[in-house]
Design a protein that fits this description.
globular; 75% helix; single chain
């Protein structure tokens, strides 16, 4: 597509020279490294004088540090990266008058939106790959354990799912930057969507489950299970829930399903590993393939809506 390389290089240069990208990247990298270092030290202390089970390296991503694990951290704060990269992608140039000048050149309008989205995806990929590689190296240094081939493949699939997940939020931010002329309005709208899916979906799921479930008491286990299923079904409308379930199953071979009624700690996982066979990577992928397809679908739909709205806008309004 003619001109897309020009738009892509220009957007990448803008992102790399942006102070906000440097700040958010440094902040996320610092928190991720601190969490991984604390988890690595804890696992090394717990495994002193104990035979090391399989897939212990993956616990670097799943075991909680001071407050949360790396998987939980990316699930909650990863969307902010996509929102920050895209909330002023279009309206900033529209307000500065550079967008109409750009479209007056021999550059197709779809090249502009495609180039900006691909540049954002490239930045997300660079950020996540860099963080995962640094954390992997830190785990090698702290834990002294070399990951196996299947562990590497699981980390790779986790990385791919994370890129798709954050790219969805980039598409949301680009959509609002097209719909609203004000950058402040598009930023607030993007944050409102993130807050809704992060907090209010879970609250609404509990309210709906309490209203529909009858007598969820300890003496009525069927009602408890039904309530849990209602909560889970309602929460699946959230991209965050889709991502959390998919990555938790991929990165944890001992997890046989995306639906877990109880949560266990890292040492309990080690004990379970000695008496329960891990799930092969292919089986883990089959379990989460509906979640992965859903994440890819909503990402494509979100960008398609942005693309359609941008292509239908009058040039004078740009």
């Amino acid at each position: 597509m003619q001109g897309i390389n020009v738009i892509l290089k220009k957007e990448l240069a803008d992102h790399f020279s942006s102070y906000r990208f440097v700040i958010i990247f440094a902040l996320i990298a610092m928190i991720s490294l601190i969490t991984a270092y604390m988890v690595g030290l804890n696992i090394r202390q717990q495994l002193e004088g104990v035979a090391k089970p399989r897939f212990i390296f993956l616990m670097l991503f799943t075991a909680p540090g001071a407050m949360f694990s790396l998987v939980q951290f990316v699930a909650f704060f990863g969307p902010l990266v996509g929102l920050i990269l895209g909330f002023d992608t279009i309206n900033r140039e529209r307000n500065q008058g550079t967008l109409s000048k750009l479209l007056s050149q021999p550059i197709y309008r779809d090249v502009v939106i495609n180039g900006k989205f691909l540049a954002g995806v490239a930045m997300i990929t660079i950020m996540l790959v860099s963080i995962v590689l640094v954390i992997t190296g830190l785990g090698l240094l702290v834990m002294g354990i070399v990951p196996g081939l299947e562990e590497i493949w699981r980390i790779f699939f986790y990385l791919v799912i994370s890129i798709v997940y954050v790219s969805f939020w980039l598409g949301v931010a680009i959509l609002f930057s097209i719909l609203f002329r004000s950058t402040a309005t598009s930023a607030l709208a993007s944050l409102a969507v993130w807050i809704f899916f992060s907090f209010f979906v879970s609250i609404g799921a509990n309210i709906v489950a309490n209203a529909l479930a009858t007598d969820p008491s300890p003496e009525n286990p069927e009602a408890i299970i039904r309530q849990a299923r209602i909560i889970k079904a309602f929460q699946l409308i959230s991209p965050m829930e889709l991502y959390t379930d998919a990555t938790a199953t991929i990165i944890d071979p001992l997890r046989k399903s995306t639906r877990s009624m109880i949560s266990v700690g890292p040492m309990e996982n080690i004990s379970m590993a000695r008496f329960s066979g891990p799930l092969p990577l292919g089986q883990s992928i089959l379990i989460v393939i509906p979640y992965i397809i859903s994440l890819v679908a909503i990402t494509i739909i979100c960008f398609a809506v942005s693309y359609t709205v941008f292509m239908r806008q009058e040039i004078r309004s740009l």
